[in-house]
Write a structure and sequence with these properties.
2 domains, 13 helices, single chain, six-stranded parallel β-sheet, 38% helix, Dihydrodipicolinate Reductase, domain 2, alpha/beta, 24% strand, Rossmann fold
Length: 388
């Protein structure tokens, strides 16, 4: 049986990891045939460590290579839509790293092309969709057991990043290099899961603080509020300067509550409190002053050892690659379709726009206005740049 032949554009942090895993045979249905990077140092690493793999100094040569069936785009964020579009036009299957891009207008162009190329597979590296806890939450919500979602709250402040993290690369912590801070770098996974589980809101009100206790040009402390068409609401809190920080997701519905909480890197807990009678029905018939609605409680834990295996020896990223390969070769349903990438990005763009303008944003956002605001910050950055 033929294997899917991958080419990787960008072999920095994530591309480096993907290249090693595919080259080691961790996906039995694929083989690494090419990599591209503008860095001579990274190309030298590839020459020494990736045998029988073609090495290019630019992305266009890799995309045009006839040996490549599928392209993984692992470049800085601004280039994800650009190289995704070029690869699709060249007849390649495409798997892009998160986020889908920096602004939705570019991602829309990528998505429209992907819709036209029905014979090609388009995916995104939303690896946390493979987490069994979030998949369990999704299953319960889709089954109707949780009922109508009233509220979703996520406090995700365990993305601790010291100044040394931002100092390791001149592009980090800048509008020009990354296109944002914690929302565009660390949180795309949670923003995706936020909408994957609760749906897209109709309104967003955001507060994004720039450079809290760090010499950076972008936000590292964010709180935003969401409203939904059916009356539900949400709150999302994140930062990169809290330690040890918190990672707790709560979803409350008419039928109960789901809680997913990390107690540490290798310890995760899932709780589903299911009301025996939905709150709306109970309220109609109840005569007591301060009652407690009867419920059942289901708890799951992932042990340190099993989580270490899942996160390290196996890993979420390779599971997305395996799924992508099977989708191309055998038609397996994608865990993370590339078209979904615009949803979480829409949330982050709306939060930025709301914070910049100091007002509530109704979706869809004004895309041209967002780009103008972003370009303004990139221009200002050249003048007042806090980063050395």
């Amino acid at each position: 049986m033929a294997k899917l032949r991958y080419g990787i554009i960008g072999i920095g942090k994530m591309g480096h990891s993907h290249a090693k895993k595919i080259n080691k045979g961790m996906d039995k249905n694929s083989v690494l045939v090419a990599v591209a990077d503008i860095s001579e140092e990274r190309r030298s690493w590839a020459e020494k460590n990736l045998k029988n793999v073609k090495i290019f100094s630019n992305a266009d040569d890799l995309i045009s290579c006839s040996d490549v069936d599928a392209v993984i785009v692992a470049t800085p964020h601004y280039f994800h839509p650009e190289y995704g579009i070029k690869a699709l036009k060249a007849g390649k299957h495409v798997l892009i790293e998160k986020p889908a891009g920096v602004f939705t207008k570019a991602v829309k162009e990528l998505n429209e092309l992907a819709k036209e190329k029905k014979d090609l597979t388009f995916g995104i590296m939303y690896n946390q969709r493979t987490d069994p806890m979030y998949r369990e939450a999704k299953k319960i919500i889709e089954s109707g057991q949780l009922g109508k979602i009233k509220r979703i709250n996520w406090v995700i402040t365990n993305w601790y990043r010291p100044q040394a993290y931002y100092d390791q690369g001149g592009w980090r912590g800048t509008w020009e290099g990354e296109g944002g801070g914690v929302l565009i770098n660390q949180c795309p996974h949670q923003l995706d899961l936020f909408q994957w589980l609760a749906g897209m809101p109709k309104k967003v009100y955001g507060f994004a603080k720039v450079g809290v206790e760090r010499n950076i040009n972008v936000e590292n402390d964010v709180t935003f509020y969401t409203e939904y068409e059916d009356g539900g609401s949400g709150v999302f809190v994140t930062s990169t300067h809290d330690s040890p920080g918190t990672n707790r997701l709560e979803i409350s519905g008419d039928g109960g509550q789901i809680i997913v909480e990390w107690k540490g890197l290798l310890s995760e807990k899932f709780t589903f409190i299911k009301l025996k009678t939905k709150e709306s029905e109970f309220n109609k018939n109840n005569k007591k002053f301060m009652p407690i609605i009867p419920y059942t409680k289901k708890t799951k834990r992932i042990s340190t050892l099993s989580n270490a295996v899942r996160m390290g020896l196996i890993g979420q990223h390779i599971n997305i690659i395996r799924n992508f390969s099977k989708s191309v070769l055998f038609g397996e349903k994608l865990i993370a379709p590339g078209l979904d990438g615009i949803n979480g990005l829409t949330l982050s763009n709306a939060v930025y726009q709301s914070s910049w303008q100091g007002k509530e944003i109704t979706l869809p956002i004004d895309e041209d206005q967002f780009i103008n605001e972003l370009e303004k910050r990139k221009s200002e950055e050249k003048v007042y740049n806090k980063k050395a």
